[in-house]
Amino acid sequence: MKRAIVLAVLLAASLPPLPRTHAATTPPTKSAETSQPLPGAKAKLRDRLFQHLAAAATEAQGRALEDEIWRFWLDLAPNPGVRSLVDQAMDRREAYDFTSAEALLDRAVEQAPDYAEAWNQRAFIRFLRENDEGAEQDILRALELEPKHFGALSGLFHVLSRRGRTEAANAALIEAVRIHPWLKERTMLPPDPDAERPPIKGTEQDL
Fold it and tell me: CA-CA distance, 162 to 149, in Å (whole number)?
């Protein structure tokens, strides 16, 4: 069981990502705007970060920008108390105390229902606890709030793959790679020469 948990942590890297019904599970495609408009300076920073991410020429550049975007998402917490709950939950997750982590994130999403990263982090915990339905719902909420959340989209890929919904899972991962061409999971898409999908960075496709 512990081996499965460790593998999930390595693969799902953040789950950090939902519809209420089976048929509705499709990743959002309107990724230019969030459902809750950001203040001017933050909106400009968000746009600039994603523009640089899409244009990253090397994996090192892509990874550095990915880290910046994760910090940006976490810093969108509406107040220090909510941010503290999320930080504590991430610490509990690292200690494999998933029950406490989920309880902390329950409080975070209750106090800040428009904070995408709280939903995303709870989705990850629910995935690790094998609550795939709950994880899926949280991911979709995170994506409503931040449609470019490549972590949530890759999390959706893992959740739907485990539920046997391969086509929808691959659609989520394709969208994630469009946003983040250097995403770790980019090599997990099966070969499909007839599908319209972004090029996979750092492989023979680039030669």
Answer: 20
As a whole number of angstroms, the distance between CA 44 and CA 9 comes to 32
Residue 26 lies in a domain: no
Average of per-residue pLDDT across 150-178: 95
Q: What CATH number corresponds to the domain at position 190?
A: 1.25.40.10
Give, in order, the Cα–Cα distances in Å from 61 to each of 65, 147, 182, 183.
6, 22, 9, 12
The answer to whether residue 28 is domain-embedded is no
Cα separation, 150 vs 5, in Å, equals 22
Q: Which residue from 140, 198, 150, 199 is spatially nearest to 176, judged by alpha carbons?
A: 150
Q: Cα Rg for the chain, rounded, in angstroms? A: 16
Residue 195 has pLDDT above 60, yes or no: no
User: What's the confidence (pLDDT) of residue 202?
Assistant: 65
Q: Are 189 and 205 in contact (CB under 8 A)?
A: no
Number of other CB atoms surrounding residue 95 within 10 Å:
10
As separate numbers, helices (DSSP H) first and strands (DSSP E) second, the chain gives 9, 0
Residue 5 has pLDDT above 90, yes or no: no
What is the distance between the terminal CA atoms of the chain, rounded to a whole angstrom?
A: 41
- Residue range 176-201: average pLDDT? 77
Does the pLDDT of residue 76 top 50, yes or no? Answer: yes
**What tokens were used for 200?**
């996979």
- Split at pLDDT 50, 70, 90, the class of 192 is low
Q: Report the alpha-carbon angle 79-118-62, nearest 5.
A: 100
